Amino acid sequence: MLAWTCVGAGKTTLTEEQRRLTAESFEYVWTTVRDKHWDPKLGGLDWQKVHDELRPALDKATTMDEARQVMSRMLERLKQTHFGIIPGDVYVEMKGSDRGGEKEETGTGGPGIQVRVIDGHALVTDITPDSPAAAAGIRPGWEIVRIDGKPIDKPLRVIEKEEAGSTLLGLSLTASVSARLSGDIGTPVKVEFRDGADKRVERTLDRVKPRGAVAHLGSLPPLHFWVEERKIANVGYLRFNMFFEPDALMKAVTTVMKDCAECRGFVVDLRGNPGGIGALASGLAGWFTDRGGTQLGTMYLRTGPIHFPVFARPAPFHGPLAILVDSCSASTSEIFAGGMQDLKRARIFGTRTAGAALPSMIERLPDGDGFQYAFANYISEGGKVLEGSGVTPDEEVKLARRDLLDGKDRVLERALQWIDAGGK
Questions:
Q1: Based on the domain organization, do 223 and 320 belong to the same domain?
Q2: What total of structural domains would you count in the chain?
Q3: From CA 22, how far away is CA 3, in angstroms rounded?
C-alpha cells in the first residue's frame, strides 16, 4: 500500500522504504529491456554500460520525480517509441481507478455509451441499442461533464499533459472516460451531461452486460465480441469491435460478400477497434485481392520474424474499398489498414490511428509508477514503422459535436462519396 498512497507526492523527500522501491523499479526496468527487447543487441547499445552510468544517479535521487527522470533517461537511450515511465497518478487515471484500494479492474458492465475525447471534451459518439443509455434518451453529441459527481476535465488534463505529442493520446483519453463509466454489472453510475441545447442534465444509468457474445482466449479475461454487416445504398458495410472469434467474423464476412456481388463498393469500419488476433488481418485482406505472394507486413520478435501474408481468395471483391479508422484503432486494425494502404488496395478515411501496432505491456513498478515496453517491432509492407506513428488516413475527416448532434457521420459520408465517384 505504501507505493500506492505515496503516488503523486513526486516532489517530497523519499523515505528509506521509497528508496528501496525505486531501486527495485530501476533494476526491473533495466532487466526487462535486457531480456525482452526484440533485438538482443539493442542496436549496438551497451546496456550494461547504461546501467552502470545511471545507477549512481538513481541512488542520489531525493524525490520520486528525480528517480523517475533517471529511469526515463535510461529508456531514452533506446531511441524507440513506447518505452517509458508513466507517473503513478497518470497510471491511475489511465486505468480509471480512483475509487481507492488496490483494485485496478473496472468491472465488466457499462451503460451502453461510446465516447471520444475531442478538443478536450468527452463526447458521446454512439449509443448501444436497447441499452440503459438508449432508454434514457441520451444522444450522440452530448458531452459528459461528471461521472459519479466527479468532474472529468482534471484527469483528462493530466493525461493530455503527460502524453502530449503521443499517438496514444486519443486512446488513453477515451480509455480513461470509458473506465469510469464501467463497473460491476447491476451497479448504477450517475452521469452529468451537457445536452444538445447546452443544458446540464443528469442521468442515473444501470451498468449491464456489454454488447455481444462472451468469448475466451487463453488466460485473457472474458471478452464480448460483436459484428454487424449490412448494405448501405448498394455498398457493403462491415463493422466489428475487435479481431476476435474467427468463426463468427468470417461467417459475417462471407454473408455480406454473398450479398455484395454487384455492390458499388465496400466499407470496413475499424473505428474504436483495438485489434486482437493478428492472423485475422491476413484472412480479411484476402477477401479484397487475388494477388498471391503479397503480405501486409512483418513483425520482428527476439525469437524470429512473423509474416502477415495475404490469404487471397479465388473470387474476391474488386470494387473500391474504404477503411475507416480513428485514434482508437490499434494493433491488428493498424496492421490491416496500413497494409492495405501500402498495397494500394484501399483508401483510408478518418483520423490517425493509435500507433500501437506492437505487442506491448504496461506493468506497475514497485514504486507505484507504470512501465510501458514493447517486445516486438513491426514494419508494414511499404517499409513504414507503425509503432509511435500510426496509420495516416488518405483523407482526414474529424468528428465534430455539431455533426454528432445532427446525426451525421462525416467519416462514413465521405467514404461513400468517394465510392460514388468510382473510387477515384
A1: yes
A2: 3
A3: 10
